[in-house]
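Lab notebook, bench 4. Still working through the backlog of constructs that have no structural model yet. Next entry is a single chain of 277 residues. Request: give me the structure tokens for it.
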Amino acid sequence: METLKTHIVHGGTLRYLRHDSAATGTPMTLSVFVPPGEGPFPVLIWLSGLTCTEDNFTTKAGAYAAAAAHGVIIVAPDTSPRGEGVADDPAYDLGQGAGFYVDATEAPWAAHFRMESYVVEELIGLIDAEFPTTGARSISGHSMGGHGALTLALRHPHLFRSVSAFAPIASPTRCPWGEKAFAAYLGDDRALWEAHDAARLIEGGVGESCYDDILIDQGDADPFLVEQLKPELLVAAGAAAGQAITLRMQPGYDHSYFFMASFIADHVAFHAERLRG
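Model written out:
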């Protein structure tokens, strides 16, 4: 991996990196925070939301004081492949910056939009090879990235000790953002979409007994709450399937990184406790 820039923060080292991805067939960028000390350390993977790059979480979430205190590496990849020859769309909710953490099967997206394979196969192996990790990892994210964290954790429970999310798209098969993206990336067969819908996966028993709890923070002043996010569907699925879900409705908070910065330390601590087990 090529190091683009390095910063010292809270006694640890933050690197911006770029590498050529076999999964996407493009260069991919990410940030990696390594806490102070020799390690090895467990890993928290963070998946960002629509329009974001690896930089949004890195500069706005304020996660590194907690990560340094708990001894956790945090990895924040970009949200999609990018560059010349990579398919795109003028809308903010499709194409570059909107990978939705699935492997696309439809043209023109299938050539590069393979974000599930990138995260669970390539990125994990790369981080374990290049950094002093214990091999234990958890996953979290926001909005589209919250959807990604939940679905990847449920689809690949052997890879993750725990999962949490901020304002996740809880059931993308039942909201405009998800319906648009899944139709483009996965085609018109809605039955195939359900394999990438956290609420549907929990309803179907996927990931059953793998997670002692799933922590969700959601602002009640979030403008996307009713139409796009629908956390009540996730809670209902958990209740029906016996999957513990802690949904914390935070009064007055919106969809921004100010919301995440207010509660990110709780999520780092949630994961650190389970990563030590």
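Notes after review: DSSP finds ten helices and nine strands in the chain. Residues 89 and 95 are 5 Å apart (CA to CA). Flag for follow-up if needed.
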